[in-house]
């Protein structure tokens, strides 16, 4: 289950939500896994919906680039209700690592100092695209319309952002 919403003028957020639902449509209707794995997008994720979802969650994924996000508390609510946290060392995950201990979270990815070093060196998405076959395959499928066969260019802005503007 993935929850979220996008402001009316936030084109990229809307396209990411559309991509999530399009990938979900492929997975949910796949003859091999469609009856065992489902992608569910929770529209207009808000407090009243969170009150229902958080107590039932087993896992909370909280990912953002280290050192870039405000400290939210949604992941704390998930943890207080027994969900395991998988995420980056950012936002409230930093505070959660200090209190219950980092050994009680599943932390991955870069730390703030790693992000700063990469910023100084310069980030080039194409280097990762060229080096990681699974990433290249995923990006190619998005670019080539695998998840939007009726509109093959639908996600070109997402691919362009990830390849040319994402930090």
How is the secondary structure organized here?
Layout: E1 2-4, H1 11-28, E2 41-43, H2 47-53, E3 59-62, H3 74-80, E4 84-87, H4 92-101, E5 106-107, H5 112-121, H6 125-131, H7 133-143, H8 156-164
Parallel strand pairs: 1-2, 3-4, 4-5
State the main characteristics.
167 residues; mainly alpha; two-stranded parallel ribbon; 8 helices; 10% strand; globular
Outline:
This protein has helices spanning 11-28, 47-53, 74-80, 92-101, 112-121, 125-131, 133-143, 156-164, and strands at 2-4, 41-43, 59-62, 84-87, 106-107. With 167 residues, it is mainly α.
Task: Please tell me about this protein's structure.
The chain is mostly helical and 167 residues long. It has a domain at 123-167. The protein is built from eight helices and five strands; from the N terminus they run βαβαβαβαβαααα. The protein has helices spanning 11-28, 47-53, 74-80, 92-101, 112-121, 125-131, 133-143, 156-164; strands at residues 2-4, 41-43, 59-62, 84-87, 106-107. The strands form two sheets. Strands 3-4-5 form a three-stranded parallel sheet, covered by helices on one side. Strands 1-2 form a two-stranded parallel ribbon. The longest helix is centred in the N-terminal third of the chain and has 18 residues, at 11-28. It is globular and about 50 Å long. The model has no long low-confidence stretch (mean pLDDT 92).
